[in-house]
Design brief:
215 residues; alpha/beta; 7 helices; 34% helix; globular
């Protein structure tokens, strides 16, 4: 099987991943019975994990068993769950393959989860930590969208800082039915609690304001 990442890309990604501080645990849930991109996602993560020994990668095949991955709310495939060095769930998810431009949001999630200080000012951090209601953020993306990774990373950082928040990248084409449900016509489309949404890689203030409205 040919490599997903060529030598030049591998070198570039290795340099970027040198910013990782602590171990990060990456779990990939697949179900070969109902999964179009599971094989490619497995290959991508397998190759990524070879680039830095702080990436602890595990493939889990559910084989149609709904109880596998239930502790992380896994219901769609492929699902990537990113855990910190203590294997603590910070609510960070990828639904679908984070390839194309989305490899940038995967890199950001790995580095941020590893313990590198987040690129956020203290006022923003305090505002994120003040969220006190259960919040679900879905960021619908396509792999050709250059603005999508920024929105995904903002959502993931909110989740990392607040235990009430879960944030997911959703690859719109892989999960077409869910995209239709939320009327995704432009990306990134950010949906909060399935009730409020906006389009574009907006400033963090827009994320926080929408979360407040959706509370």
């Amino acid at each position: 099987m040919s490599k997903f990442l060529n030598d030049d890309v591998r070198k570039m990604l290795t340099d970027i991943l040198n910013d990782m501080v602590d171990d990060v645990y990456v779990k990939l849930y697949v179900d070969t019975l109902k999964c179009d991109t599971c094989t490619e996602t497995h290959q991508l993560l397998d190759e990524m994990s070879e680039l830095n020994d702080k990436i602890k990668f595990e493939l889990i095949e559910t084989k149609g068993d709904d109880t596998v991955g239930a502790e992380y709310g896994v219901k769609m495939f492929p699902t990537i769950v990113v855990l910190d060095k203590d294997k603590e769930d910070k609510g960070v998810r990828f639904y679908g393959i984070p390839a194309g431009h989305e490899i940038n949001s995967l890199l950001a999630a790995l580095i941020d989860m590893s313990g590198k200080p987040l690129d956020l000012d203290q006022e923003t951090i305090d505002a994120i930590k003040a969220i006190d209601t259960e919040t679900d953020i879905k960021v619908f993306v396509t792999l050709t969208c250059p603005h999508c990774p920024g929105a995904v990373t903002k959502a993931h950082r909110i989740a990392m800082l607040n235990p009430f928040v879960k944030a997911s990248m959703v690859e719109a084409q892989t999960f077409g039915e869910l995209s239709m449900k939320h009327a995704v016509s432009s990306v990134p489309k950010i949906v909060v609690n399935d009730t409020h949404d906006f389009v574009g890689d907006q400033p963090m203030d827009v994320f926080l304001d929408t979360i407040r409205k959706a509370a």
